[in-house]
Design brief:
The complex is a heterodimer of chains A (about 300) and B (about 425).
Chain A lengths: L1 H5 L5 H8 L17 E6 L8 H9 L29 E5 L9 E5 L8 H5 L5 E3 L5 E3 L9 H5 L6 E2 L9 E2 L5 H5 L6 H5 L5 E5 H14 L19 E4 L19 H10 L4 H21 L16
Parallel strand pairs in A: 1-9
Antiparallel strand pairs in A: 1-8, 2-3, 4-5, 6-7
Chain B lengths: L6 E2 L7 H29 L10 H13 L2 H11 L6 H25 L20 H28 L13 H39 L17 H27 L6 H28 L12 H21 L1 H4 L2 H25 L14 H24 L3 E2 L2 H5 L20 H6 L1
Chain lengths: ~300, ~425
């Protein structure tokens, strides 16, 4: 917190390079709420059937291809990313330890506990719900795409081909559907081998830890999403390092922390800008008196006018 | 001694040939922009889900407002620190500010997907104070308004008392006249406060523009990811703003067949020199302190882009401006200042495009043809607007005497007419 105090407007420059390291905790968003729900993905259970993709596409009216078409495994030959017509995709990774059983990784919006996209959105079109989901109100959106710059997982997709009313597209954790009692997200409800578990984030973390403790040979000791970028609603268990499974290696701090810290220190109660304004006003008066007779004097002293 | 400084439209217009070339480029740009609005960003740009920001954000918005900084730094110099020697340049700098920021705002409207919602950040129920971009948007919007208010007296001075609308519009002459008078009175009252507010807003949004990319630490190349990015942005525009004013002033004098106001320009270039030195010391020591200069040998395109930004765009103009001969020779001074602007332009391209790396995209973003044509076209249109403005409005000091009052000693750079033709923009202005 001391960083925030000394990073006043005036000394922003001199102090920042020396300060280096991590910024203070983000002011913007609190810790995960008790109600926050998420999904635990046990990737050792996933068989790559892609039924979650089908369920998601049907739930959000993205494509109406029949379920059978999802049995096509040729899509696994290339790594895929989410786009405007697919909020979740499953990728396949070779498994050297057990070539018969490749590893499948389902990806979608991680629904961060402290989402960078929500911090970035200048009109509040993206919002973090108490229930855990990061939701989007298209009518507010101006289409600046700063959320996409901010997202550490490169999740949001944009309707570039829509000339008039393009929207940002991403998984909503089936926010409306899960508001109803007993309902889980479409992908979770569909998952045949029970690789996906929907529930309170705190319960899911406990479950993940139990699983790791019970089968230390089956899982690496890392719940992806427990701490990454400040924590995410989607949590993953895997048998080998996530860096080898297409997941980014991200520190524990929310990525927006530094930007928010600077932002909030510079604009603390609007005081620093007002102080600069006052100082300029004083300069204006002082120099007016002094400069009345000084006309066309070569100005050799440039640093005087530093603002 | 006190001289009352008067401004006037150019006595003679500028080259017709140049205008025609600009019009052609502008027309091509308009076609590119129409294409974007008809067929969408997907058709007109190379942007993707992995590379959401391209050259429109980097050049048309970020670099444009950086290079148009002269509007506020000159206001500070002349009206706050009362350096009267630079008053002849004040309106030119203001015009650069007005046009540069309008350019940035117009380009932003082309770049964002839902351009009709561009006013949303200003609507209180949608304010989002954690967003760096919100702060940038609010400051730029307010500052743009302030620039227009600052510019109002220039328009009032030209037209108040001689409003003569053509044809059927003539019946509105009285109303427009009254409006101009009212605007003159009103702006006169609030101008000095707005000037100060404009300076504060400028410092705020220039540093915040630098804070924008701090949100993506893991996607940014270490050359351009530093916690002091906001400070570096602010320092760099202080140098670039004056440099652009000097360059434009020299080019305008050339085009209009006038003598550049060399004493004012060369002493102003000392400010460029000092600010550039401060910026480069900060920039380079930041690279050294974070030890990222080690990446220079790591291969890839980034070292090359960094060197282009720092050598021809930084150290070379620093050396040039250090020489008194350069500062006192209009052509050399123009080149040196052009390089300063180029360096800041390259920095913005590097920060917003080159430094940004997606972990998932197979290929990097490179700008598409329509993106580049749009930038060229917009630039041409705004250059036409600039030429029209200096030919129509009292932007430049009135008489040759005003200019030569102090420039008798400097003959070497005496205005070569260049491609100036006697008749030009001015005629169209009065058509």
């Amino acid at each position: 917190m001391n960083r925030r105090q000394f990073l006043g407007w005036g000394c922003l420059g001199a102090a920042a390079p020396l300060a280096g390291g991590r910024a203070a905790a983000s002011e913007a968003s609190g810790a995960a709420s008790d109600n926050a729900r998420g999904v635990l993905v046990d990737t050792t259970e996933c068989v790559g059937c892609r039924k979650c993709e089908w369920a998601c596409n049907r739930e959000h009216h993205l494509t109406d291809e029949p379920l059978e078409s999802y049995e096509d495994t040729s899509v696994f030959e290339q790594a895929r990313r989410m786009d405007t017509a697919a909020y979740t995709v499953v990728n396949r990774f070779d498994n050297a330890r057990n070539p018969e059983r490749p590893i499948f990784m389902k990806v979608q919006c991680m629904h961060c506990v402290k989402p960078a996209c929500v911090s970035a959105c200048l009109v509040g079109a993206l919002r973090k719900q108490d229930a855990g989901a990061v939701t989007y109100e298209g009518w507010k959106c101006i289409g600046c795409r700063y959320c996409m710059v901010a997202c550490p997982f490169e999740v949001p997709a944009y309707e570039y081909d829509n000339a008039l009313t393009p929207l940002v597209r991403k998984c909503s954790l089936c926010f409306e559907r899960t508001q109803r009692e007993g309902e889980s997200p479409a992908c979770v409800a569909m998952c045949p081998p029970m690789a996906l578990t929907f529930g309170r984030r705190s319960d899911l973390l406990a479950l993940a830890r139990e699983k790791i403790a019970a089968h230390p040979d089956r899982y690496i000791d890392h719940v992806y999403g427990e701490h990454e970028a400040g924590g995410t609603s989607w949590l993953y268990l895997a048998e080998r390092s996530f860096a080898t499974l297409g997941f980014p290696t991200i520190g524990d701090a929310p990525v927006q922390e530094l930007a928010e810290t600077i932002q909030h220190s510079v604009f603390k109660f609007g005081l620093p800008p007002l102080m600069v304004l006052g100082a300029l006003g004083l300069f204006m008066k002082a120099f007016d008196e002094a400069g009345k007779d000084a006309v066309r004097k070569p100005a050799a002293s440039g640093e005087e006018s530093a603002v | 001694m006190t001289t009352h400084l008067e401004f006037a439209p150019l006595e003679r217009g500028m080259s017709r040939t140049t205008n025609r070339v600009l019009l052609v480029i502008g027309a091509v740009g308009v076609v590119a922009i129409l294409y974007r609005f008809l067929f969408g960003l997907g058709a007109a740009t190379n942007l993707s889900n992995q590379y959401p920001w391209g050259v429109w954000k980097a050049i048309s918005v970020a670099a444009a407002v950086a290079l148009a900084t002269g509007g506020f730094t000159m206001a500070a110099l002349v009206h706050v620190f009362h350096r009267r020697a630079y008053e002849p340049l004040a309106r030119l700098a203001l015009l650069i500010g007005v046009l540069g920021y309008t350019f940035g705002a117009a380009s932003l409207a082309v770049d964002i997907g839902r351009y009709y919602n561009i006013w949303h950040p200003a609507w209180p129920t949608m304010w989002q104070g954690n967003s760096v971009l919100f702060e940038v948007a609010m400051c730029i919007m307010s500052y743009l308004m302030i620039l227009y208010v600052e510019f109002t007296p220039v328009i009032c001075e030209r037209y108040a008392g001689r409003v003569a609308l053509p044809g059927g519009l003539a019946r509105w002459n009285g109303a427009v006249e009254a409006l101009l008078r009212a605007a003159e009175r009103l702006t006169g009252r609030v101008l000095s406060v707005l000037l100060l507010v404009g300076i504060v807003l400028s410092c705020m949004h220039h540093s915040s523009l630098g804070a924008l990319m701090l949100v993506a630490p893991h996607k940014m190349h270490p050359f351009w990811y530093t916690p002091v990015l906001p400070l570096l942005f602010l320092l760099s525009v202080l140098a670039a703003g004056f440099a652009v004013v000097i360059l434009v002033s020299i080019l305008t004098a050339r085009g209009a067949g006038r003598r550049p106001d060399l004493p004012a320009l060369s002493s102003l270039s000392l400010y460029v020199l000092v600010f550039l030195a401060v910026y480069l010391v900060a920039r380079i020591s930041d690279l050294l302190i974070r030890e990222v200069h080690l990446h220079l040998t790591a291969g890839g395109v980034e070292p090359l882009w960094l060197l282009i930004e720092l050598l021809p765009g930084g150290l070379l103009p620093l050396l040039l401006l250090g020489s008194a001969r350069v500062r006192n020779t209009p052509a050399l001074l123009g080149w040196a200042c052009g390089l300063v602007g180029f360096g800041v332009l390259m920095n913005r391209v590097n920060v917003f495009v080159v430094a940004y790396r997606s972990a998932y995209a197979a290929t990097r973003y490179t700008p598409g043809v329509f993106e580049l044509l749009t930038i060229a076209g917009m630039l041409a249109i705004f250059t036409i607007a600039f030429r029209y403005a200096v030919a129509t409005l009292p932007i430049l000091p009135k008489t040759a005497e005003t200019l030569s009052m102090v420039s008798d000693t400097a003959d070497e750079g005496a205005g070569e007419p260049g491609d100036a033709a006697p008749e030009g923009v001015r005629e169209c202005a009065h058509a």
